[in-house]
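User: I've been going back and forth on whether these two constructs are worth ordering. Before I decide, could you fold them both?

Assistant: Sure. I'll take them in the order you sent them. The first construct and its C-alpha coordinates:
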Amino acid sequence: MFRLLATKQTIKSNGRRFLSSSSILKADPAKGKKFAEKNEDIIKHSQTSSATWKKISLFLAIPAILICAVPVYRVEQEHAKHRKALKAIPDDKWPAEYEYQNIRRKKFFWGDGDKTLFWNEGVNRHVKN
Protein backbone atom coordinates (compact mmCIF):
# COMPACT_ATOMS: atom_id res chain seq x y z
CA MET A 1 0.00 0.00 0.00
CA PHE A 2 2.70 2.46 0.97
CA ARG A 3 4.72 1.40 -2.04
CA LEU A 4 2.05 2.76 -4.34
CA LEU A 5 2.00 6.08 -2.55
CA ALA A 6 5.75 6.49 -2.55
CA THR A 7 6.42 5.75 -6.20
CA LYS A 8 8.32 8.24 -8.27
CA GLN A 9 5.27 8.83 -10.40
CA THR A 10 3.08 10.05 -7.51
CA ILE A 11 5.86 12.26 -6.20
CA LYS A 12 6.35 13.79 -9.65
CA SER A 13 2.64 14.35 -10.23
CA ASN A 14 2.05 15.89 -6.79
CA GLY A 15 5.05 18.16 -7.19
CA ARG A 16 3.89 19.21 -10.65
CA ARG A 17 0.39 20.03 -9.41
CA PHE A 18 1.73 22.13 -6.58
CA LEU A 19 4.14 24.11 -8.71
CA SER A 20 1.82 24.55 -11.67
CA SER A 21 -1.06 26.06 -9.72
CA SER A 22 -1.96 29.57 -10.74
CA SER A 23 -2.88 30.75 -7.25
CA ILE A 24 0.00 33.12 -6.61
CA LEU A 25 -0.68 35.35 -3.62
CA LYS A 26 -0.95 39.02 -4.46
CA ALA A 27 -1.42 41.81 -1.95
CA ASP A 28 -4.79 43.52 -2.05
CA PRO A 29 -4.42 47.09 -0.69
CA ALA A 30 -8.16 47.43 0.04
CA LYS A 31 -8.22 44.27 2.17
CA GLY A 32 -4.99 45.32 3.88
CA LYS A 33 -6.47 48.69 4.77
CA LYS A 34 -9.65 47.02 6.05
CA PHE A 35 -7.57 44.65 8.18
CA ALA A 36 -5.51 47.53 9.63
CA GLU A 37 -8.69 49.49 10.47
CA LYS A 38 -10.21 46.46 12.17
CA ASN A 39 -7.02 46.02 14.18
CA GLU A 40 -7.12 49.68 15.27
CA ASP A 41 -10.77 49.31 16.30
CA ILE A 42 -9.88 46.30 18.43
CA ILE A 43 -7.06 48.22 20.10
CA LYS A 44 -9.36 51.19 20.86
CA HIS A 45 -12.03 48.89 22.25
CA SER A 46 -9.52 47.06 24.46
CA GLN A 47 -8.22 50.36 25.83
CA THR A 48 -11.71 51.56 26.78
CA SER A 49 -12.74 48.23 28.28
CA SER A 50 -9.52 47.94 30.29
CA ALA A 51 -10.08 51.47 31.60
CA THR A 52 -13.62 50.47 32.59
CA TRP A 53 -12.42 47.41 34.51
CA LYS A 54 -9.70 49.44 36.19
CA LYS A 55 -12.34 51.90 37.43
CA ILE A 56 -14.58 49.04 38.59
CA SER A 57 -11.66 47.54 40.52
CA LEU A 58 -10.67 50.80 42.16
CA PHE A 59 -14.05 52.32 42.91
CA LEU A 60 -16.22 49.24 43.50
CA ALA A 61 -14.15 46.20 44.48
CA ILE A 62 -11.72 47.80 46.93
CA PRO A 63 -14.44 49.66 48.90
CA ALA A 64 -16.55 46.47 48.97
CA ILE A 65 -13.61 44.54 50.40
CA LEU A 66 -13.03 47.21 53.02
CA ILE A 67 -16.71 47.29 53.97
CA CYS A 68 -16.66 43.51 54.46
CA ALA A 69 -13.34 43.58 56.31
CA VAL A 70 -14.54 45.84 59.15
CA PRO A 71 -17.13 43.45 60.66
CA VAL A 72 -14.81 40.48 60.16
CA TYR A 73 -12.07 42.33 62.06
CA ARG A 74 -14.48 42.98 64.93
CA VAL A 75 -15.53 39.34 65.12
CA GLU A 76 -11.90 38.24 65.09
CA GLN A 77 -11.08 40.62 67.93
CA GLU A 78 -13.85 39.05 70.03
CA HIS A 79 -12.53 35.62 69.12
CA ALA A 80 -9.01 36.62 70.23
CA LYS A 81 -10.39 37.73 73.62
CA HIS A 82 -12.15 34.38 73.96
CA ARG A 83 -8.93 32.49 73.19
CA LYS A 84 -7.11 34.50 75.88
CA ALA A 85 -9.79 33.55 78.38
CA LEU A 86 -9.48 29.88 77.43
CA LYS A 87 -5.72 29.97 78.09
CA ALA A 88 -6.38 31.06 81.67
CA ILE A 89 -8.61 28.07 82.47
CA PRO A 90 -6.66 25.45 84.46
CA ASP A 91 -6.52 21.85 83.26
CA ASP A 92 -8.79 20.51 86.01
CA LYS A 93 -11.58 22.88 84.91
CA TRP A 94 -11.14 21.91 81.28
CA PRO A 95 -13.72 19.45 79.93
CA ALA A 96 -12.74 15.80 80.33
CA GLU A 97 -11.27 14.04 77.33
CA TYR A 98 -13.09 10.99 76.05
CA GLU A 99 -11.41 7.82 74.89
CA TYR A 100 -12.02 8.65 71.22
CA GLN A 101 -10.20 11.99 71.42
CA ASN A 102 -6.48 12.35 70.66
CA ILE A 103 -6.07 8.71 69.60
CA ARG A 104 -2.43 7.92 68.83
CA ARG A 105 -1.72 4.57 67.14
CA LYS A 106 1.97 5.40 67.02
CA LYS A 107 4.01 8.43 67.99
CA PHE A 108 4.57 11.26 65.56
CA PHE A 109 8.18 11.50 64.43
CA TRP A 110 8.47 15.18 65.40
CA GLY A 111 8.52 16.87 68.79
CA ASP A 112 7.49 14.75 71.74
CA GLY A 113 5.47 12.41 69.50
CA ASP A 114 2.12 13.32 71.05
CA LYS A 115 1.31 16.62 69.36
CA THR A 116 0.06 16.90 65.79
CA LEU A 117 1.87 18.94 63.17
CA PHE A 118 -0.55 21.87 63.56
CA TRP A 119 -0.64 21.78 67.36
CA ASN A 120 -1.15 25.20 68.92
CA GLU A 121 -0.45 25.51 72.63
CA GLY A 122 -2.86 28.43 72.91
CA VAL A 123 -5.81 26.53 71.45
CA ASN A 124 -5.15 22.80 71.75
CA ARG A 125 -4.90 20.91 75.01
CA HIS A 126 -4.09 17.36 75.80
CA VAL A 127 -5.23 16.86 79.37
CA LYS A 128 -4.06 13.50 80.69
CA ASN A 129 -6.29 12.17 83.48
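The second construct, handled the same way:
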Amino acid sequence: MSNPASTTTAKAPAARLALRLAALALLLATVGFWAAKGAHTGWSQNQVPVKQTDEITGIEFVTYEKRFVPGVEFLGAGTGLAGALFVISLLFKRKSTQPSS
Protein backbone atom coordinates (compact mmCIF):
# COMPACT_ATOMS: atom_id res chain seq x y z
CA MET A 1 0.00 0.00 0.00
CA SER A 2 1.47 3.32 -1.02
CA ASN A 3 1.31 6.51 0.93
CA PRO A 4 -1.24 8.90 -0.72
CA ALA A 5 0.77 11.95 0.33
CA SER A 6 3.81 10.76 -1.60
CA THR A 7 1.80 10.19 -4.79
CA THR A 8 0.31 13.70 -4.76
CA THR A 9 3.71 15.31 -4.36
CA ALA A 10 5.35 15.27 -7.77
CA LYS A 11 8.74 16.52 -8.84
CA ALA A 12 9.06 19.69 -10.86
CA PRO A 13 9.08 19.29 -14.64
CA ALA A 14 12.41 19.13 -16.41
CA ALA A 15 12.02 22.64 -17.86
CA ARG A 16 11.49 24.12 -14.40
CA LEU A 17 14.56 22.40 -13.02
CA ALA A 18 16.64 23.30 -16.08
CA LEU A 19 15.73 26.99 -15.77
CA ARG A 20 16.60 27.05 -12.09
CA LEU A 21 19.94 25.35 -12.70
CA ALA A 22 20.65 27.77 -15.56
CA ALA A 23 19.82 30.71 -13.27
CA LEU A 24 22.17 29.38 -10.59
CA ALA A 25 24.95 28.74 -13.12
CA LEU A 26 24.54 32.23 -14.60
CA LEU A 27 24.61 33.84 -11.17
CA LEU A 28 27.75 31.96 -10.12
CA ALA A 29 29.47 32.64 -13.46
CA THR A 30 28.63 36.35 -13.31
CA VAL A 31 29.84 36.82 -9.74
CA GLY A 32 32.93 34.68 -10.40
CA PHE A 33 33.88 36.60 -13.56
CA TRP A 34 33.25 39.95 -11.86
CA ALA A 35 35.39 38.94 -8.86
CA ALA A 36 38.17 37.43 -10.99
CA LYS A 37 38.45 40.56 -13.15
CA GLY A 38 38.81 42.92 -10.21
CA ALA A 39 35.42 43.30 -8.47
CA HIS A 40 35.23 46.97 -9.46
CA THR A 41 32.40 48.71 -7.59
CA GLY A 42 32.13 51.54 -10.12
CA TRP A 43 31.22 51.46 -13.81
CA SER A 44 33.01 49.13 -16.21
CA GLN A 45 36.34 50.34 -17.53
CA ASN A 46 38.15 49.64 -20.80
CA GLN A 47 41.31 51.41 -19.68
CA VAL A 48 42.79 51.30 -16.20
CA PRO A 49 45.06 54.06 -14.83
CA VAL A 50 48.51 52.83 -13.78
CA LYS A 51 50.90 55.03 -11.79
CA GLN A 52 54.50 54.95 -12.96
CA THR A 53 57.62 56.74 -11.80
CA ASP A 54 60.19 58.27 -14.13
CA GLU A 55 63.55 56.62 -13.44
CA ILE A 56 65.60 59.75 -13.90
CA THR A 57 63.52 62.53 -12.34
CA GLY A 58 61.47 60.46 -9.87
CA ILE A 59 58.26 62.19 -10.98
CA GLU A 60 55.10 60.09 -10.81
CA PHE A 61 52.81 60.06 -13.83
CA VAL A 62 49.75 58.12 -14.92
CA THR A 63 49.53 55.92 -17.99
CA TYR A 64 46.53 53.91 -19.10
CA GLU A 65 46.60 50.17 -19.63
CA LYS A 66 44.02 48.68 -22.02
CA ARG A 67 42.20 46.13 -19.90
CA PHE A 68 38.52 45.34 -19.31
CA VAL A 69 37.34 45.59 -15.71
CA PRO A 70 33.63 44.76 -15.28
CA GLY A 71 31.69 47.09 -13.02
CA VAL A 72 28.47 46.98 -11.09
CA GLU A 73 26.30 47.26 -14.21
CA PHE A 74 27.80 43.98 -15.45
CA LEU A 75 27.11 42.40 -12.07
CA GLY A 76 23.58 43.84 -11.99
CA ALA A 77 22.75 42.69 -15.52
CA GLY A 78 23.94 39.14 -14.85
CA THR A 79 22.12 38.97 -11.53
CA GLY A 80 18.96 40.43 -13.06
CA LEU A 81 19.02 37.92 -15.91
CA ALA A 82 19.52 35.06 -13.44
CA GLY A 83 16.60 36.37 -11.40
CA ALA A 84 14.45 36.58 -14.53
CA LEU A 85 15.24 32.94 -15.37
CA PHE A 86 14.26 31.93 -11.85
CA VAL A 87 10.98 33.86 -12.04
CA ILE A 88 10.21 32.25 -15.41
CA SER A 89 10.78 28.85 -13.79
CA LEU A 90 8.04 29.68 -11.28
CA LEU A 91 5.54 29.94 -14.13
CA PHE A 92 5.80 26.21 -14.77
CA LYS A 93 3.35 24.37 -12.55
CA ARG A 94 4.17 21.20 -10.75
CA LYS A 95 2.82 18.01 -12.16
CA SER A 96 -0.01 16.75 -10.02
CA THR A 97 -0.93 13.11 -9.89
CA GLN A 98 -4.31 11.96 -8.74
CA PRO A 99 -4.22 9.32 -6.01
CA SER A 100 -5.74 6.08 -7.21
CA SER A 101 -8.59 4.64 -5.20
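Notes on the second construct follow. Residues 15-90 form one domain. Residues 16 and 37 are 32 Å apart (CA to CA).
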